[in-house]
Specification:
This protein folds into two domains: 118 residues, Aspartate Aminotransferase, domain 1 (Alpha-Beta Complex); 244 residues, Aspartate Aminotransferase, domain 2. It is 41% helix and 15% strand. The protein is built from 13 helices and 13 strands. α4 links the parallel β3 and β4. α1 crosses α10, α2 crosses α10 and α11 runs parallel beside α13. It is globular, with a radius of gyration of 21 Å. The two termini are 41 Å apart.
Length: 382
Amino acid sequence: MNSFPTIQLSTKPGVIDLAWGQPDPKLLPVAAMQRATEIALQKFGADTLAYGADAGAGPLLDFLRARIEKDEGRALAHEQIMLTGGNSDALDQIATHFTEPGDTVLVEAPTYHLAVRILRDHHLDIVPIATDEEGLRINALQEELAELKRAGKRVKFLYTIPTFHNPTGVSLSEGRRRGLVKIAAQEHLLLVEDDVYRELAYDAPASPSLWSLAPDGVVLRMGSFAKSLAPGVRLGWLTGKGEHVQRIALGGLRDSGGGVNHFTAMTIAALCEEGMYDAQVETLKRAYRERRDALSEAIVRELPEAAFAKPGGGFFIWLNFPNGFDAQVLRGRAPEHGVDFIHGARFFVEGGGTNALRVAFSLYSPEELQEAMKRLRSAIDA
Ligand SMILES: Cc1ncc(COP(=O)(O)O)c(C=O)c1O
Protein backbone atom coordinates (compact mmCIF):
# COMPACT_ATOMS: atom_id res chain seq x y z
CA MET A 1 0.00 0.00 0.00
CA ASN A 2 1.33 3.50 -0.87
CA SER A 3 2.02 5.81 2.08
CA PHE A 4 0.44 9.24 2.29
CA PRO A 5 2.77 12.09 1.29
CA THR A 6 4.62 13.85 4.13
CA ILE A 7 5.26 17.24 2.55
CA GLN A 8 3.76 19.46 -0.14
CA LEU A 9 6.96 19.81 -2.19
CA SER A 10 7.33 17.29 -5.00
CA THR A 11 9.66 17.66 -7.95
CA LYS A 12 10.05 15.54 -11.06
CA PRO A 13 13.32 13.59 -11.23
CA GLY A 14 15.88 15.38 -13.38
CA VAL A 15 13.93 18.67 -13.43
CA ILE A 16 15.20 21.86 -11.73
CA ASP A 17 11.81 23.14 -10.72
CA LEU A 18 11.86 26.89 -10.18
CA ALA A 19 8.07 26.97 -9.79
CA TRP A 20 8.28 26.27 -6.05
CA GLY A 21 8.57 29.30 -3.76
CA GLN A 22 9.80 27.08 -0.96
CA PRO A 23 13.03 26.96 1.05
CA ASP A 24 15.83 24.52 0.41
CA PRO A 25 15.30 21.71 2.98
CA LYS A 26 19.03 21.97 3.76
CA LEU A 27 18.41 25.48 5.12
CA LEU A 28 15.67 24.49 7.57
CA PRO A 29 16.68 24.86 11.27
CA VAL A 30 16.23 21.26 12.43
CA ALA A 31 18.81 21.35 15.25
CA ALA A 32 17.63 24.75 16.54
CA MET A 33 14.01 23.56 16.68
CA GLN A 34 15.08 20.42 18.53
CA ARG A 35 16.90 22.50 21.14
CA ALA A 36 14.04 25.00 21.37
CA THR A 37 11.51 22.22 21.96
CA GLU A 38 13.52 20.93 24.91
CA ILE A 39 13.96 24.42 26.33
CA ALA A 40 10.25 25.22 25.94
CA LEU A 41 9.11 22.03 27.68
CA GLN A 42 11.59 22.59 30.51
CA LYS A 43 10.86 26.29 30.93
CA PHE A 44 7.09 26.42 30.39
CA GLY A 45 6.19 22.87 31.47
CA ALA A 46 2.53 21.90 31.05
CA ASP A 47 1.63 25.39 29.74
CA THR A 48 3.30 24.30 26.50
CA LEU A 49 0.67 21.61 26.05
CA ALA A 50 -2.48 23.41 27.28
CA TYR A 51 -5.00 25.28 25.11
CA GLY A 52 -3.28 28.60 24.37
CA ALA A 53 -4.66 32.08 25.10
CA ASP A 54 -7.05 33.16 22.32
CA ALA A 55 -4.75 35.85 20.84
CA GLY A 56 -1.78 33.46 20.91
CA ALA A 57 1.00 32.33 23.25
CA GLY A 58 2.05 35.17 25.60
CA PRO A 59 5.82 34.55 25.49
CA LEU A 60 5.91 34.79 21.70
CA LEU A 61 3.64 37.84 21.61
CA ASP A 62 5.94 39.53 24.16
CA PHE A 63 8.96 38.82 21.94
CA LEU A 64 7.24 39.99 18.75
CA ARG A 65 5.86 43.14 20.31
CA ALA A 66 9.30 44.22 21.55
CA ARG A 67 10.97 43.33 18.23
CA ILE A 68 8.38 45.13 16.09
CA GLU A 69 8.45 48.23 18.32
CA LYS A 70 12.25 48.34 18.05
CA ASP A 71 12.48 47.65 14.30
CA GLU A 72 9.47 49.64 13.12
CA GLY A 73 9.30 52.43 15.68
CA ARG A 74 5.63 51.96 16.40
CA ALA A 75 4.24 50.99 19.81
CA LEU A 76 1.73 48.16 20.06
CA ALA A 77 -0.98 47.84 22.70
CA HIS A 78 -1.88 44.26 23.70
CA GLU A 79 -5.05 44.26 21.64
CA GLN A 80 -3.21 45.39 18.48
CA ILE A 81 -1.27 42.16 17.88
CA MET A 82 -2.18 38.47 17.74
CA LEU A 83 -0.70 35.23 16.44
CA THR A 84 -1.98 33.57 13.27
CA GLY A 85 -1.34 30.26 11.54
CA GLY A 86 0.78 32.12 8.94
CA ASN A 87 -0.37 34.53 6.25
CA SER A 88 -2.60 32.06 4.45
CA ASP A 89 -4.55 31.51 7.66
CA ALA A 90 -4.54 35.24 8.45
CA LEU A 91 -5.96 36.14 5.01
CA ASP A 92 -8.62 33.46 5.34
CA GLN A 93 -9.60 34.77 8.78
CA ILE A 94 -9.68 38.37 7.54
CA ALA A 95 -11.95 37.31 4.69
CA THR A 96 -14.14 35.42 7.19
CA HIS A 97 -14.52 38.37 9.54
CA PHE A 98 -14.46 41.35 7.16
CA THR A 99 -16.39 40.19 4.09
CA GLU A 100 -19.55 38.47 2.91
CA PRO A 101 -19.97 36.47 -0.30
CA GLY A 102 -20.33 38.81 -3.27
CA ASP A 103 -18.31 41.63 -1.71
CA THR A 104 -15.63 43.37 -3.75
CA VAL A 105 -11.93 43.19 -2.87
CA LEU A 106 -8.95 44.55 -4.78
CA VAL A 107 -5.67 42.82 -5.61
CA GLU A 108 -2.58 43.82 -7.54
CA ALA A 109 -2.10 42.66 -11.14
CA PRO A 110 -0.06 40.50 -10.94
CA THR A 111 -0.55 39.08 -7.45
CA TYR A 112 0.22 35.97 -5.40
CA HIS A 113 -1.93 33.38 -7.19
CA LEU A 114 -2.70 31.33 -4.07
CA ALA A 115 -3.99 34.35 -2.15
CA VAL A 116 -6.49 34.64 -5.00
CA ARG A 117 -7.56 31.05 -4.32
CA ILE A 118 -8.22 31.92 -0.65
CA LEU A 119 -10.29 34.95 -1.66
CA ARG A 120 -12.23 32.82 -4.14
CA ASP A 121 -13.05 30.36 -1.33
CA HIS A 122 -14.99 33.27 0.21
CA HIS A 123 -16.87 33.94 -3.05
CA LEU A 124 -15.55 37.48 -3.36
CA ASP A 125 -15.58 39.64 -6.45
CA ILE A 126 -11.87 40.19 -7.12
CA VAL A 127 -10.88 43.35 -9.01
CA PRO A 128 -7.27 43.77 -10.22
CA ILE A 129 -5.33 47.05 -10.00
CA ALA A 130 -2.49 47.65 -12.44
CA THR A 131 1.13 47.76 -11.33
CA ASP A 132 4.29 48.94 -13.08
CA GLU A 133 8.00 48.44 -12.47
CA GLU A 134 7.64 50.38 -9.19
CA GLY A 135 4.66 48.36 -7.92
CA LEU A 136 1.02 49.29 -7.41
CA ARG A 137 -0.09 52.26 -9.55
CA ILE A 138 -1.74 54.71 -7.22
CA ASN A 139 -3.56 56.51 -10.06
CA ALA A 140 -5.01 53.23 -11.28
CA LEU A 141 -6.24 52.53 -7.74
CA GLN A 142 -7.93 55.92 -7.50
CA GLU A 143 -9.61 55.47 -10.88
CA GLU A 144 -10.89 52.00 -9.96
CA LEU A 145 -12.18 53.20 -6.59
CA ALA A 146 -14.08 56.03 -8.30
CA GLU A 147 -15.55 53.64 -10.86
CA LEU A 148 -16.63 51.13 -8.22
CA LYS A 149 -18.18 53.94 -6.19
CA ARG A 150 -20.18 55.06 -9.26
CA ALA A 151 -21.36 51.47 -9.64
CA GLY A 152 -22.53 51.54 -6.01
CA LYS A 153 -19.93 49.01 -4.86
CA ARG A 154 -18.09 49.31 -1.55
CA VAL A 155 -14.64 47.78 -1.48
CA LYS A 156 -13.94 45.68 1.62
CA PHE A 157 -10.16 45.72 1.33
CA LEU A 158 -7.11 45.84 -0.92
CA TYR A 159 -4.78 42.84 -0.61
CA THR A 160 -1.26 44.07 -1.32
CA ILE A 161 2.34 42.78 -1.13
CA PRO A 162 4.36 46.01 -1.07
CA THR A 163 7.66 44.47 0.06
CA PHE A 164 9.59 42.00 -2.16
CA HIS A 165 6.44 41.18 -4.10
CA ASN A 166 5.38 37.74 -5.20
CA PRO A 167 5.69 37.28 -8.18
CA THR A 168 7.54 40.44 -9.31
CA GLY A 169 10.11 40.94 -6.51
CA VAL A 170 9.35 44.70 -6.60
CA SER A 171 9.25 46.84 -3.45
CA LEU A 172 6.89 49.78 -3.50
CA SER A 173 8.81 53.07 -3.19
CA GLU A 174 8.48 55.01 0.04
CA GLY A 175 6.70 57.82 -1.80
CA ARG A 176 4.07 55.44 -3.16
CA ARG A 177 3.73 53.82 0.27
CA ARG A 178 2.88 57.19 1.78
CA GLY A 179 0.53 57.98 -1.11
CA LEU A 180 -1.26 54.64 -0.78
CA VAL A 181 -1.75 55.01 2.95
CA LYS A 182 -3.07 58.56 2.49
CA ILE A 183 -5.61 57.54 -0.14
CA ALA A 184 -6.69 54.52 1.89
CA ALA A 185 -7.30 56.77 4.92
CA GLN A 186 -9.27 59.27 2.82
CA GLU A 187 -11.34 56.58 1.11
CA HIS A 188 -11.85 54.41 4.23
CA LEU A 189 -10.20 51.57 2.34
CA LEU A 190 -8.74 48.81 4.52
CA LEU A 191 -5.28 47.71 3.35
CA VAL A 192 -4.40 44.06 3.99
CA GLU A 193 -0.61 44.10 3.85
CA ASP A 194 1.09 40.76 3.17
CA ASP A 195 4.53 41.27 4.72
CA VAL A 196 5.77 37.69 4.44
CA TYR A 197 9.22 38.55 2.93
CA ARG A 198 10.16 41.53 5.18
CA GLU A 199 13.03 39.78 6.97
CA LEU A 200 14.63 38.52 3.75
CA ALA A 201 16.24 41.81 2.64
CA TYR A 202 19.56 41.27 0.85
CA ASP A 203 20.93 44.73 0.07
CA ALA A 204 19.40 47.21 2.51
CA PRO A 205 16.73 47.01 5.20
CA ALA A 206 13.20 46.64 3.81
CA SER A 207 11.15 49.82 3.31
CA PRO A 208 8.83 50.76 6.19
CA SER A 209 5.68 48.66 6.30
CA LEU A 210 2.41 50.31 5.31
CA TRP A 211 1.25 49.48 8.84
CA SER A 212 4.08 51.51 10.38
CA LEU A 213 3.23 54.53 8.18
CA ALA A 214 -0.55 54.54 8.44
CA PRO A 215 -2.99 56.00 10.96
CA ASP A 216 -4.56 53.39 13.25
CA GLY A 217 -7.26 51.38 11.49
CA VAL A 218 -6.02 51.74 7.89
CA VAL A 219 -3.80 48.64 7.68
CA LEU A 220 -3.96 45.04 8.83
CA ARG A 221 -0.40 43.74 8.45
CA MET A 222 0.26 40.01 8.20
CA GLY A 223 3.74 38.78 9.19
CA SER A 224 4.89 35.16 9.05
CA PHE A 225 7.62 32.81 10.23
CA ALA A 226 7.15 30.74 7.05
CA LYS A 227 9.96 32.34 5.03
CA SER A 228 12.24 33.62 7.80
CA LEU A 229 12.24 30.42 9.90
CA ALA A 230 10.35 27.46 8.43
CA PRO A 231 7.02 27.05 6.61
CA GLY A 232 6.11 23.92 8.58
CA VAL A 233 5.71 25.91 11.82
CA ARG A 234 2.49 27.44 10.41
CA LEU A 235 2.79 30.54 12.51
CA GLY A 236 2.61 34.26 11.92
CA TRP A 237 1.23 37.45 13.42
CA LEU A 238 -1.21 40.21 12.67
CA THR A 239 -0.83 43.88 13.65
CA GLY A 240 -3.55 46.48 13.29
CA LYS A 241 -6.23 48.44 15.05
CA GLY A 242 -7.32 46.79 18.31
CA GLU A 243 -10.93 46.46 17.21
CA HIS A 244 -9.88 44.82 13.92
CA VAL A 245 -7.41 42.39 15.49
CA GLN A 246 -9.82 41.47 18.27
CA ARG A 247 -12.58 40.70 15.77
CA ILE A 248 -10.44 37.70 14.78
CA ALA A 249 -8.88 36.96 18.20
CA LEU A 250 -12.34 36.79 19.78
CA GLY A 251 -13.89 34.79 16.94
CA GLY A 252 -15.38 31.34 17.30
CA LEU A 253 -12.30 29.54 15.97
CA ARG A 254 -10.07 30.77 18.82
CA ASP A 255 -12.83 30.54 21.43
CA SER A 256 -13.21 26.86 20.68
CA GLY A 257 -9.61 25.88 19.87
CA GLY A 258 -7.56 28.46 21.78
CA GLY A 259 -4.60 30.32 20.28
CA VAL A 260 -3.43 28.83 17.01
CA ASN A 261 -0.59 26.24 16.98
CA HIS A 262 0.14 26.82 20.65
CA PHE A 263 2.82 24.17 21.16
CA THR A 264 4.75 25.46 18.15
CA ALA A 265 4.33 29.06 19.34
CA MET A 266 5.79 28.20 22.76
CA THR A 267 8.70 26.42 21.04
CA ILE A 268 9.37 29.38 18.77
CA ALA A 269 9.20 31.71 21.79
CA ALA A 270 12.05 29.70 23.34
CA LEU A 271 13.95 29.74 20.04
CA CYS A 272 13.57 33.53 19.73
CA GLU A 273 14.53 34.21 23.37
CA GLU A 274 17.74 32.21 22.90
CA GLY A 275 18.77 34.32 19.87
CA MET A 276 18.33 31.43 17.46
CA TYR A 277 15.75 33.27 15.31
CA ASP A 278 18.04 36.19 14.56
CA ALA A 279 20.84 33.75 13.74
CA GLN A 280 18.59 31.82 11.35
CA VAL A 281 17.48 35.00 9.56
CA GLU A 282 21.15 35.94 9.03
CA THR A 283 21.95 32.44 7.69
CA LEU A 284 19.02 32.60 5.26
CA LYS A 285 19.90 36.08 4.07
CA ARG A 286 23.46 35.03 3.27
CA ALA A 287 22.32 31.90 1.41
CA TYR A 288 19.50 33.56 -0.55
CA ARG A 289 21.58 36.62 -1.46
CA GLU A 290 24.14 34.33 -3.08
CA ARG A 291 21.39 32.47 -4.94
CA ARG A 292 19.73 35.66 -6.13
CA ASP A 293 23.07 36.91 -7.45
CA ALA A 294 23.87 33.63 -9.17
CA LEU A 295 20.46 33.50 -10.85
CA SER A 296 20.61 37.16 -11.92
CA GLU A 297 24.04 36.68 -13.49
CA ALA A 298 22.89 33.52 -15.27
CA ILE A 299 19.83 35.33 -16.67
CA VAL A 300 21.98 38.12 -18.09
CA ARG A 301 24.29 35.53 -19.66
CA GLU A 302 21.76 33.01 -20.97
CA LEU A 303 18.60 35.05 -21.60
CA PRO A 304 19.74 38.47 -22.85
CA GLU A 305 16.32 39.13 -24.43
CA ALA A 306 14.57 38.95 -21.03
CA ALA A 307 14.02 42.16 -19.06
CA PHE A 308 14.12 41.86 -15.27
CA ALA A 309 14.84 43.86 -12.13
CA LYS A 310 17.12 42.23 -9.57
CA PRO A 311 14.97 42.07 -6.43
CA GLY A 312 16.24 43.48 -3.13
CA GLY A 313 14.74 40.57 -1.19
CA GLY A 314 12.26 37.71 -1.20
CA PHE A 315 12.31 34.55 -3.31
CA PHE A 316 11.50 35.53 -6.90
CA ILE A 317 12.67 37.00 -10.18
CA TRP A 318 10.09 38.04 -12.77
CA LEU A 319 11.22 37.77 -16.38
CA ASN A 320 9.59 39.80 -19.14
CA PHE A 321 10.17 38.56 -22.67
CA PRO A 322 9.50 40.52 -25.88
CA ASN A 323 5.91 40.68 -27.14
CA GLY A 324 4.81 37.58 -28.99
CA PHE A 325 6.59 35.27 -26.53
CA ASP A 326 4.19 32.77 -24.94
CA ALA A 327 5.40 31.58 -21.52
CA GLN A 328 2.63 28.99 -21.27
CA VAL A 329 3.72 27.30 -24.49
CA LEU A 330 7.31 27.34 -23.24
CA ARG A 331 6.19 25.77 -19.98
CA GLY A 332 4.66 22.90 -21.90
CA ARG A 333 8.07 21.82 -23.20
CA ALA A 334 10.40 23.08 -20.43
CA PRO A 335 10.31 19.86 -18.33
CA GLU A 336 11.65 17.90 -21.33
CA HIS A 337 14.67 20.21 -21.07
CA GLY A 338 14.96 19.58 -17.31
CA VAL A 339 13.59 22.87 -16.01
CA ASP A 340 10.26 24.31 -14.85
CA PHE A 341 8.78 27.67 -13.71
CA ILE A 342 5.36 29.33 -13.44
CA HIS A 343 4.07 31.19 -16.49
CA GLY A 344 3.06 34.79 -15.88
CA ALA A 345 -0.65 34.47 -16.67
CA ARG A 346 -1.16 32.42 -13.47
CA PHE A 347 -0.67 35.62 -11.45
CA PHE A 348 -3.35 37.70 -13.16
CA VAL A 349 -7.06 37.46 -12.38
CA GLU A 350 -8.19 39.09 -15.63
CA GLY A 351 -5.61 38.33 -18.31
CA GLY A 352 -2.04 39.55 -18.78
CA GLY A 353 1.45 38.23 -18.22
CA THR A 354 1.52 36.06 -21.36
CA ASN A 355 5.11 37.05 -22.11
CA ALA A 356 6.32 36.83 -18.48
CA LEU A 357 7.36 34.07 -16.12
CA ARG A 358 8.38 33.67 -12.48
CA VAL A 359 11.44 31.81 -11.26
CA ALA A 360 12.19 31.16 -7.58
CA PHE A 361 15.78 31.09 -6.32
CA SER A 362 15.01 29.74 -2.81
CA LEU A 363 15.08 25.98 -3.38
CA TYR A 364 18.29 25.40 -5.35
CA SER A 365 22.03 26.00 -5.04
CA PRO A 366 23.75 28.71 -7.12
CA GLU A 367 25.18 26.02 -9.42
CA GLU A 368 21.77 24.45 -10.01
CA LEU A 369 20.24 27.87 -10.71
CA GLN A 370 22.92 28.54 -13.32
CA GLU A 371 22.29 25.14 -14.90
CA ALA A 372 18.54 25.88 -14.89
CA MET A 373 19.08 29.02 -17.00
CA LYS A 374 21.13 27.03 -19.54
CA ARG A 375 18.25 24.56 -19.77
CA LEU A 376 15.72 27.37 -20.14
CA ARG A 377 17.83 28.76 -23.00
CA SER A 378 17.74 25.40 -24.77
CA ALA A 379 13.96 25.10 -24.17
CA ILE A 380 13.45 28.56 -25.73
CA ASP A 381 15.74 27.79 -28.68
CA ALA A 382 13.83 24.56 -29.32
C1 LIG B 1 3.02 36.65 -0.85
C2 LIG B 1 2.83 35.43 -0.04
N1 LIG B 1 1.92 35.42 0.94
C3 LIG B 1 1.70 34.34 1.69
C4 LIG B 1 2.41 33.18 1.50
C5 LIG B 1 2.12 32.02 2.38
O1 LIG B 1 2.39 32.41 3.70
P1 LIG B 1 2.26 31.42 4.94
O2 LIG B 1 3.17 30.27 4.70
O3 LIG B 1 2.65 32.26 6.10
O4 LIG B 1 0.84 30.98 5.00
C6 LIG B 1 3.38 33.13 0.49
C7 LIG B 1 4.13 31.90 0.23
O5 LIG B 1 4.59 31.64 -0.85
C8 LIG B 1 3.58 34.28 -0.30
O6 LIG B 1 4.50 34.31 -1.27
